Amino acid sequence: MVKISEHPALCDLHIHVGSSVAPHIMWSIAHQQGLRLPVKDYWEFVEMITINENNVKSLDDYIRILHEWTERIQSSPAAIERSIYEIIGKEFRSSHVTQIEVRFNPMKRNLQGQRDLDHIIHAAIRGLDRASLEYGVKAGLIFCMAREFEPEVNEIIVEKAIRYHNRGEVGIDVAGSESRTIELSDSLPFYVSLFERARAAGLGTTIHCGETKHTAAAGMDAVIQNLKPDRIGHGVQCHLSEDTMKRLVDTDTVLEICPTSNLHTRAVNSLGDFHEILGKLDKQGVRYTINTDGTYYCKTNLRREFAILQEAGILTPQRADQVRLEAFKASFLSS
Questions:
Q1: 8 A C-beta contact, residue 96 and residue 303
Q2: CA distance 320 to 231
Q3: Could you report the per-residue pLDDT of 220-259, keeping only the tens digit for each?
Q4: Cα 178 vs. chain centroid, distance in angstroms?
Q5: pTM for the whole thing?
Q6: Which residue in 147, 173, 178, 191 is a FRET match for 66, CA 20 to 30 A apart?
């Protein structure tokens, strides 16, 4: 049997804390914090916080579970420290992930101000440092703004990212339902300024966009031209527009593709559709990476993401290795 450590090293650029902690760890954290759960049986709890055909039929359903339970359970310094530590260790053990950027919204872990935001961030850094030391993994944090937050609240998140840049914080992101656009709204100039400030401070920039048809080409074009991110989270809808793909190439913007997640949220109808999507990206010369998004949420890991694409004949072994290396090149930890 070939040991995981003997497989080529992998790099995950798009993995959320809220959807990547094992259910048994989440169960333990919930009980340690004395949270009142709507279920008493562990297996019902697992069903509640992982994706299945009954509870997720769209991106909004996917996000709802995060908001209702996983983010709430992780809302304490001890919980976020343990969560980040567990994610990094598990991905190293299961997939030989030696470089990883873990993302989360610190303001969704402070119970709307009941917890101190800096304590949450310091705890996240402790979890990162401990896992990095124990497993020899190169790891960083990405702070996510929320589309549903007021701009001034998101500004605080960027300010914290800048403050902790030398403590393991490597980038900023914008996440949330694409039905709440910022790239096509009057608040866009405000976010242009935030992204410029982050870049000036040396942070990497990424944004969830083009995951659904809410923003599709128009939203991605606005993001590329105005926010100028280094990377785009998901971005699978870009294959519908040759102009958008050309803009991605011209600006050297890298996509963070998350196959299993996109299938669960119905952003992509079937695995076979990735033949067309990735085929178009390769033909146009768009840079992209393969990532997990939410490991336990989607019941996957990074090695499985590569495996399903190769087993379906979507990526050849040679192309898969090129994409594997692309993640290391695009990482904010490599700059």
A1: yes
A2: 19
A3: 999 999 999 999 999 999 999 999 999 999 999 999 999 9
A4: 15
A5: 0.93
A6: 191
